[in-house]
Amino acid sequence: MRIHVAADHAGFELKAALLEHLRAAGHEVTDHGAAEYDAQDDYPPVCFAAGEAVVADPGSLGVVIGGSGNGEQIAANKVIGVRAALAWNTDTAQLARQHNDANVVAIGARQHSVDQAIELVDAFLAEPFSQDPRHQRRIDLMSAYEASRS
Ligand SMILES: O=C(CO)[C@H](O)[C@H](O)COP(=O)(O)O
C-alpha cells in the first residue's frame, strides 16, 4: 500500500517509529515532514502536503500525527477530496474505513504509547470500506457539498 505520512513536533518521534514499522511491513511510504524536530513548528503545512498527496495518488492512504490529532485532522480536511478521521481506539480506526471510507487517519501522539498508536494505524490500513449503499450515500452528500463550494 502507498501511505503518505506527516507530523509536527509533537508527532515527530511517533512518525519515525511508524515509518520504520510501515516500511518493514512492505508498504511504500512517503514522509511529508516535518523533516527535523522543531518544537516551534506548525502542523498545517505538513498536513496539507500529506492530504494533497493522498488525493493525487488514488488508492493511497494518509496518516497525520500531532499531539492530539485534532488540528491535524482539521488541517487535512481542508484539502478537497480528503476525508480525515481522528482515531483514538481500534473501533474508531476501523469505523473510519468501514463507514466513512476515510483516506486519512489522524493520530494524537500524546494520547497513546507508540505501540498503541501503531496498532491504530495498522487497524485503519487493514480495514476496507464496507461499500454499503447507506454509507456511500452519505459520503456522496459530503462530496457534492464540497464540489458545490469549490
Ligand atoms: O495536536 C496538535 C494540534 O491539534 C499539536 O500537535 C499541538 O497543538 C502542539 O502543541 P505544542 O505547540 O504546545 O507542543
From TrEMBL:
GO biological process, one term: pentose-phosphate shunt, non-oxidative branch
Positions of D-ribulose 5-phosphate binding: 8-9, 67-71, 100, 110, 134, 138
Chain segments annotated as coiled-coil in the UniProt record: none
Gene3D superfamilies: Sugar-phosphate isomerase, RpiB/LacA/LacB (3.40.1400.10)
One Pfam family hit: LacAB_rpiB
Tree of life domain: Bacteria
Catalytic activity entry: aldehydo-D-ribose 5-phosphate = D-ribulose 5-phosphate
Pathway stated in the Swiss-Prot or TrEMBL entry: Carbohydrate degradation; pentose phosphate pathway; D-ribose 5-phosphate from D-ribulose 5-phosphate (non-oxidative stage): step 1/1
GO MF annotation list: ribose-5-phosphate isomerase activity
Signal peptide positions (record): none
Top EC category: isomerase
Keywords: Isomerase
InterPro entries the UniProt entry points to: Rib-5-P_Isoase_Actino (IPR011860), RpiB_LacA_LacB (IPR003500), RpiB_LacA_LacB_sf (IPR036569)
Keyword Isomerase: yes
EC number assigned by the record: 5.3.1.6
Family membership: Belongs to the LacAB/RpiB family.
Subunit (UniProt): Homodimer.
Name of the protein in question: Ribose-5-phosphate isomerase B
